[in-house]
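S., here's the first fold you wanted:
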Amino acid sequence: MLENIDLNFILAVVIAYLLGSISPSTILAKAQGVDIKKEGSGNAGTTNTLRVLGKKAAIITLIVDIGKGVLAVSLAEMISGPEAAYVAALAALCGHVWPIFFKFKGGKGVATAFGVVLRLDWRIAVMMFALLVVVVLITKMVSVGSISVCIAFPIACWFMHREMFPVSLIMAAIVIWKHSDNIKRLINHDENEVDIGKLLHGKK
């Protein structure tokens, strides 16, 4: 039975999860004596990092979160092939949302999800990014943009990259679930609007 176990596949998925578990926002905040999960929205992601720590930290967070998604999928494909790459994409997202290094308390996964999709099919990634930008500019709410992308992502995969469709459904469900508090605030009409221009011209 053991001979049927693909150790390279397992290794690829484990590495992807561990890469996903790296949380730049948490590390940068701790370096400044701040607990990112207790400040702002409490989310260890780019938007809250921008709000709490400023532009430089937010840019670093965004680059690392996207980069670890790209790297996780790339390594998985090198180690075990295309099938491992799809599972690694999900593993990297799970690592970001439930990081083993930070008591399984991570971010919402949008940037890391973008990174893995960028590596799997850049066309879909570009489409989702464009949708995110348009929705955020119209609504001034990053959460609405993120949720919109989660709804559109599996649809795009169904038509453009059907091999990704099962994973895309799970990824979308995880990210939407992580936005449950935002959804409640949207229903109650008290979700915070984000003035990106003001934030970018603000601190640091």
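And the second, which I think is the more interesting of the pair:
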Amino acid sequence: MPKVALYAGSFDPITNGHADLIRRSLGFVDRLVVGVAVNIAKQPLFTVEERMTLIRSALDEDPRIEVRSFSGLVVTFAREAGAQVVLRGLRAVADFEYEYQMALMNRHLAPQLETMFMVPSLEVSYVSSSLVREVARFGGEIDQLVHPAVAQALRAKFAGGSPTGASTSPSVAR
């Protein structure tokens, strides 16, 4: 039986950190489902369809990777996708508490589903989608943080003024 893992997130947008974890996971799973979460509580910069297209572009259409959208519980989607493992990335200690709680709840809901934590490569350990959006919003250099197709899409989104979901928090790019 092939080993199938699920890597779920909003991917708004996919970063080189996400791509790093995805590529490295293919060393120990046969197939990876990248689940693009539809979260009605958030106002994403990119539509679900745009995020899925950018993910496929960033991953060079690798046939071992399936990109799908979902809403609802991760455990339900994992079951539908045939995944035995949920992959989660940990950039910093601050991520651990939340991710640990989620892993325990997922275990409660689906005891047969394992959670595996991965840390990113050192070069991309500080990269997050929210930071990339913030830097791009103010015209900062993002080419080392995301795939060229993602950089182009970000520049296009921000070329027309203030996008939906603009941050009101202090900018790292100022």
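Why I say that: The domain at 4-124 is CATH 3.40.50.620 (Rossmann fold). The mean pLDDT is 90.

Talk tomorrow,
H.
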